[in-house]
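Form P-L/3: holo structure prediction, ligand flavin-adenine dinucleotide.
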Amino acid sequence: MKVLVVADHNNKDLIKSTLNTITAAKKIGPTELLVIGNDCKTVAESASKVSGLEKIYLNDDVGFENFLSENISDFLKDFAEGFSHILFTNNAFGKNIAPRLCALVDAMIVPDVIEILDSTTFKRPIYAGNAIATCKSHSKINILTIRTTSFSETETSDISIEIDMINKNFKNEKSKYIGSDIEKSERPELTSADIVVSGGRGLGSGENFKILEKLADKLGAAMGASRAAVDAGFVPNDWQVGQTGKIVAPNLYIAVGISGAIQHLAGMKDSKVIVAVNKDEEAPIFTVTDYGLVEDLFKAVPEIEKNIN
Amino acid sequence: MKVLVPVKRVVDYNVKVRVKQDQTGVELENVKMSMNPFDEIAIEEALRLKENNVATEVIAISIGSTQVQETIRNALAMGADSGIFVNCEKGLEPLIVAKILASVIKKVNPDLVIMGKQAIDDDMNATGQMLSGLLGWSQATFASKVEVIDKKLKVSREIDDGIEHIEITLPGIVTTDLRLNEPRYASLPNIMKAKKKPIEEINVDTLNVDLNQKLEILKVEEPSKRDAGIIVKSVDELIDKLKNEAKVI
Ligand SMILES: Cc1cc2nc3c(=O)[nH]c(=O)nc-3n(C[C@H](O)[C@H](O)[C@H](O)COP(=O)(O)OP(=O)(O)OC[C@H]3O[C@@H](n4cnc5c(N)ncnc54)[C@H](O)[C@@H]3O)c2cc1C
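OUTPUT (holo model):
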């Protein structure tokens, strides 16, 4: 048994959720980490301090700069041979690459794993989390994506291990990165934040979201949203929480002007404490809240913001 | 340009599913079934390419037992030109579906496959990526915008921290995200017209695909339930509870 975790990073820093995936990997067996990208030695260096890793591989090449699935899966196809398990985080990076790799090595994917029962038996949510399936993998190489909120982060230590350099490059002429629109935010990252303040269609406009953002900043919280708020263009797509957006499980989730459709609940119902502010006492969100406040949000939110300190 | 759109018949997104008592799956008897919402978005995008004179033909394909032909009819009623029904009574999973699609694609030769990023029943988010791996084609997943520029596609993708733009060559695979478009409803005249559109039937046994599932479902259970909470009467009570009872702020 030998487990490989494919690190998610931006060529500078390791994306924190990789640490949750490493925790999952270590439950299966001895774990090694692959850092693949361009000019990303610093990522491998910081990863080399993560506790309990047996080995770190670094494949540094300009062909991997933008993490195109075609290039990374092509490389992994041969590299995968030495492993019984390959784990990715269940995020945009992992979802884009893991299934393509599966096809190349004739394995079936085990996506969005929330529990590891033994080395080939896993639990995963289906139907927007309204059912939990226990599955047994019969693939020669087990390729999994891990739900971040179901596993803790592996700690880092002062001791670092050596980095094995691999120099294999791959170029593909099929797809090309052009650019991205990414808004830098000072707020904590949505999927790992302690507190999330989330807004829905009830906010009515992007401008009105400012009252929520003020509350979020006072609490040091990340901002989230329902699909309806994103579709309406109030807020960016990467704020969407839910079945087809991001999965979060903070200590405190505050849902404002969100009705609580099953697709939304799928993304936040594992939060430790859930609060909702909604003027409709019948809103389904109140079936999952610890504390519900039936009130007009435009009155309640500024008041909460003012009185919290 | 020929566009192929795979469509899946799933439990309608408005249905609150219930787990079967014997834990073998979820209750499907007398449950409303619909086309997977992401596949409706895929059909819509293909139709728009045709309306803009980029695509010449839109073919919808579905795999499964006879009922999936209803889903193909829905696609035809939206405006697809023809359908392919792959008759398969056996249990499917994304890898098998991708292999079946790859096999059909070698006969049909589409230039572009547009498909949903995920089916809302098993929530796998895998078939498109697998298909493009099997065919060695380019892939553009989670698309929120697609533009065709000289035999290439410029695709905007929804990623974890915003939007990414890539360019892919054809043939290629696009998987749809929610913001790509708003699918049309089928009009009554189009529903009538769809009844006359051709659906080709292919028996899966003629495709030479390994139908053994590699991911076995041992059981399906209800998720753990949250305890019912309380309704607070005021903002002050809420803050007090969060501070002194839940201790989260
Ligand atoms: C394929 C598919 C995937 C989906 N994926 C997701 C997903 O990942 N995430 C997601 O969130 N949704 C998803 N959805 C959409 C989901 O079904 C709901 O449509 C959506 O979550 C509704 O958003 P909302 O609660 O903001 O809007 P609404 O349902 O319109 O609710 C607005 C709420 O605001 C309240 N309100 C209005 N004004 C005020 C006020 N002044 N003060 C207080 N309260 C007020 C109303 O009472 C209401 O409860 C998906 C749907 C489909 C079909």
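COMMENT: The radius of gyration of chain B is 21 Å.
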